[in-house]
Design goal:
The chain is an all-alpha fold and about 200 residues long. The mean pLDDT is about 95. The protein folds into two domains: about 1-45, Homeodomain-like (Arc Repressor Mutant, subunit A, Orthogonal Bundle), CATH 1.10.10.60; about 60-190, Tetracycline Repressor, domain 2 (Orthogonal Bundle). The protein is built from nine helices and no strands. α1 (about 1-25) crosses α2 (about 25-35), α1 (about 1-25) packs across α6 and α5 runs parallel beside α8. It is elongated and about 65 Å long. Keywords: DNA-binding. One of its GO terms (molecular function) is DNA-binding transcription factor activity.
């Protein structure tokens, strides 16, 4: 029962935050959307802020799972770059409300309460990517760089398109630029003498 109520409240919170933003959202609006009583809400979450943090971690976990799924089965360097970029773009387009929450809405003071859990989740994502990347760097199939630089070169340009899409500034599906984004990332991450030779 509690898990179901929790899921309903998280879904309602996502809907309300997406419609009006975190600041304007109210517990009453979230409860009404979830068809939950005041007691049910406060049995599961201590506050709107607590719900927002739990929602952030839940959405982040789904995003990370979608990204890491792109590395199974284990791809070579160019395939991996392509799959990771496509996984990011596919998730953003297919989970638009969640992506908007993760990348656009969740910039608020409540974020401090979930920073440790967020760091732990981000570390698991980084470890998953590094398990694929490290052997390719050692074999000269990917350029050596820090993991942070690797991810910024991999996802950074795609994220610019995604932010424009999520904010409504550009209605073009960011997946339409996937081939170009992948080609640019390959040039940034794969040694020139290894491109298309793997």
């Amino acid at each position: 029962m509690t898990a179901s109520v929790r899921d309903d409240l998280l879904a309602a919170g996502l809907f309300v935050f997406d419609r009006v933003g975190f600041e304007a959202a109210t517990v009453a609006a979230i409860r009404a959307r979830a068809r939950a009583s005041n007691g049910s809400f406060f049995h599961v979450f201590g506050s709107k802020k607590e719900l927002a943090g739990a929602l952030f971690l839940d959405v982040l976990r789904h995003y990370h799972a979608a990204v890491l799924a792109a590395l199974d089965p284990v791809p070579d360097a160019e395939q991996g770059v392509g799959r990771l970029i496509r996984a990011h773009l596919d998730w953003v387009v297919g989970s638009r409300r969640e992506a908007r929450y993760l990348f656009e809405i969740s910039r608020s003071e409540w974020g401090e309460d979930v920073r440790d859990a967020q760091r732990a989740q981000n570390a698991r994502l980084a470890e998953g990517i590094e398990r694929w990347r490290a052997p390719l760097v050692a074999g000269g199939e990917l350029l050596p760089m820090t993991p942070v630089m690797f991810v910024s070169q991999l996802i950074g340009p795609a994220q610019i398109f995604c932010r424009a899409f999520l904010s409504g500034r550009d209605r073009t599906d960011p997946r339409s630029e996937a081939d170009t984004l992948i080609a640019c990332a390959i040039r940034a991450l794969v040694p020139p003498d290894r491109i298309n030779k793997q």
